[in-house]
Amino acid sequence: MGWVRTIIDEIVGLFVDDVSLVAAILVWLAAAFAAARLHLLAADILGPVLFAGLAAIFIENTLRRARK
Questions:
Q1: What angle do CA 23, 14, 65 make, to 5 degrees?
Q2: According to the model, what pLDDT value does residue 32 have?
Q3: 42 in Cβ contact with 25 (< 8 Å)
Q4: What is the per-residue pLDDT for 45?
Q5: How far apart are CA 36 and CA 42, in angstroms?
Q6: For the segment 11-62, what is each residue's pLDDT rounded down to a tens digit?
Q7: What is the phi/psi pair of residue 5, to 5°?
Q8: What's the pLDDT score for residue 17?
Q9: DSSP per residue over 18-42, as a string?
Q10: Full-model pTM
C-alpha cells in the first residue's frame, strides 16, 4: 500500500509545491470573503484590497524562495 501513498503524494505535488503559500492564499481569500459578507469593506474597495493582499503574499513568497 506504500505505492498508493507515493502516487497520491506525487499528484498533490503537481498542484501544491509550497504549503505555506497555499495556506496564506486560502486565509486571505477567507478573510476577504468574510469582510464582504459582513459588509466591513465597501464593494468598490474589496477588489483592490484582495489584489493588494494576494500581490503581497506572492512577493513575500518569491523573495523567501529567492533567498534559499
A1: 55
A2: 94
A3: no
A4: 93
A5: 8
A6: 887 777 788 898 999 999 999 999 999 999 888 999 999 999 999 999 999 9
A7: -65, -40
A8: 74
A9: -HHHHHHHHHHHHHHHHHHHTT-S-
A10: 0.75
What radius of gyration, in Å, describes the C-alpha atoms of the chain? Answer: 16
In angstroms, rounded to a whole number, what is the distance separating the alpha carbons of residues 45 and 35?
11
* Residues sharing a CB contact under 8 Å with residue 36, sequence separation 6 or more, in sequence order: 43, 46
Residue 42 backbone class (left: φ over 0; alpha: ψ -120 to 50; beta: rest): beta
- For 44, what's the count of Cα atoms within 13 Å in the CB-facing half-sphere? 0
Q: What 3-state DSSP class applies to 63?
A: helix
Report the alpha-carbon distance of residue 35 to residue 18 in Å, rounded.
26
DSSP code at position 59: H
